[in-house]
């Protein structure tokens, strides 16, 4: 007998997934993109939504369709070693190395820094992040209540404050966006630039990482049959990603408007700060600070919970869950005090490497639903993807690191020869070649039987 969730339960689960995935980066990057894209905001937004909305939904569907309970289960389709390597790299990226520290740093820079004297910014960041991660650790040590804390408390507060800001900006626009000339690469490749900008949200990685939390949360609502779980996961994911798309549209549009008043800002945080100040004055800074902090808190709690749970499962003889939660919180606290600019600078190369792998892995899982699971398709396709993504990784490294690496000029030239490399899609052709080789190997294996 089929069992379906009630409407209220779907809303709670979708709210939880949205709350876990949608963080500070989802606010600052579309606002900044809108300001830079100007009149080209629509193609840029479409590209951004593909990587920031469509792919996360497909990632959730992939977990559901293949009946995988974790990212490791998906990675194991390539090999066990790949599963360990990719799972650890992904969780560390969206966890203590980049995403978790970014939540605290963005919260401080947008919500607290304007009210702190320039002379004591370093001390202010230290105190703020200390309190921030104390709160994160408190909730992370109670993972069974994550549906309540994130889905029913923090997320509604965040949506309330964000809604006030966006509705006000839409009702009383600063100016027209269609007279603003696109800047930089948005003038020629708005769609692909928006596509790559969506990498910064880390939503595809987060969707894969949070898949096990989503499945476990649905199981607690008395669902156990695979088909019922799959249906509930996809429906909840659709609701969640649809809400994300609406918010991205509003933020991009509002960000483009702000350019007519303030010109180009240095980053998305400044864009949002100017918008808040324009409409609400000093109170706008407080409103924005509450909005950003709620967004970051709920994301950080979800990330610490997901990372700790995953590492306990991967390495059951290492540390218990509470110690991992403490370890990741303390490490994230330390990294967050390095500064937002450095965190973003060093995260980009890793994202350019991990994102193509995640995208291809999702595509293979969806294909599995049609043709079944065949290991040669996974292995050879992933070889082509990893090889090509390595060039994007090297190209995005900070200049100081590039100069220190041997043969960097040769590797950069070799990477630039790949088709579509100039728009960040150089990995697509080697991936296709790898897939074709995988198909040929599969056919040869079948003939040999």
Automatic annotation (TrEMBL):
<keyword id="KW-0812">Transmembrane</keyword>
<keyword id="KW-1003">Cell membrane</keyword>
<keyword id="KW-0813">Transport</keyword>
<protein>
    <recommendedName>
        <fullName>Branched-chain amino acid transport system carrier protein</fullName>
    </recommendedName>
</protein>
<dbReference type="Pfam" id="PF05525">
    <property type="entry name" value="Branch_AA_trans"/>
</dbReference>
<feature type="transmembrane region" description="Helical">
    <location>
        <begin position="324"/>
        <end position="344"/>
    </location>
</feature>
<dbReference type="GO" id="GO:0015818">
    <property type="term" value="P:isoleucine transport"/>
</dbReference>
<keyword id="KW-0472">Membrane</keyword>
<feature type="transmembrane region" description="Helical">
    <location>
        <begin position="41"/>
        <end position="66"/>
    </location>
</feature>
<keyword id="KW-0029">Amino-acid transport</keyword>
<dbReference type="GO" id="GO:0005304">
    <property type="term" value="F:L-valine transmembrane transporter activity"/>
</dbReference>
<feature type="transmembrane region" description="Helical">
    <location>
        <begin position="120"/>
        <end position="141"/>
    </location>
</feature>
<dbReference type="GO" id="GO:0015190">
    <property type="term" value="F:L-leucine transmembrane transporter activity"/>
</dbReference>
<feature type="transmembrane region" description="Helical">
    <location>
        <begin position="417"/>
        <end position="444"/>
    </location>
</feature>
<feature type="transmembrane region" description="Helical">
    <location>
        <begin position="229"/>
        <end position="256"/>
    </location>
</feature>
<feature type="transmembrane region" description="Helical">
    <location>
        <begin position="78"/>
        <end position="100"/>
    </location>
</feature>
<feature type="transmembrane region" description="Helical">
    <location>
        <begin position="377"/>
        <end position="397"/>
    </location>
</feature>
<feature type="transmembrane region" description="Helical">
    <location>
        <begin position="276"/>
        <end position="304"/>
    </location>
</feature>
<comment type="function">
    <text>Component of the transport system for branched-chain amino acids.</text>
</comment>
<feature type="transmembrane region" description="Helical">
    <location>
        <begin position="153"/>
        <end position="178"/>
    </location>
</feature>
<comment type="similarity">
    <text>Belongs to the branched chain amino acid transporter family.</text>
</comment>
<feature type="transmembrane region" description="Helical">
    <location>
        <begin position="198"/>
        <end position="217"/>
    </location>
</feature>
<feature type="transmembrane region" description="Helical">
    <location>
        <begin position="12"/>
        <end position="29"/>
    </location>
</feature>
<dbReference type="GO" id="GO:0005886">
    <property type="term" value="C:plasma membrane"/>
</dbReference>
<dbReference type="GO" id="GO:0015820">
    <property type="term" value="P:L-leucine transport"/>
</dbReference>
<feature type="transmembrane region" description="Helical">
    <location>
        <begin position="350"/>
        <end position="370"/>
    </location>
</feature>
<dbReference type="GO" id="GO:0015188">
    <property type="term" value="F:L-isoleucine transmembrane transporter activity"/>
</dbReference>
<keyword id="KW-1133">Transmembrane helix</keyword>
<dbReference type="InterPro" id="IPR004685">
    <property type="entry name" value="Brnchd-chn_aa_trnsp_Livcs"/>
</dbReference>
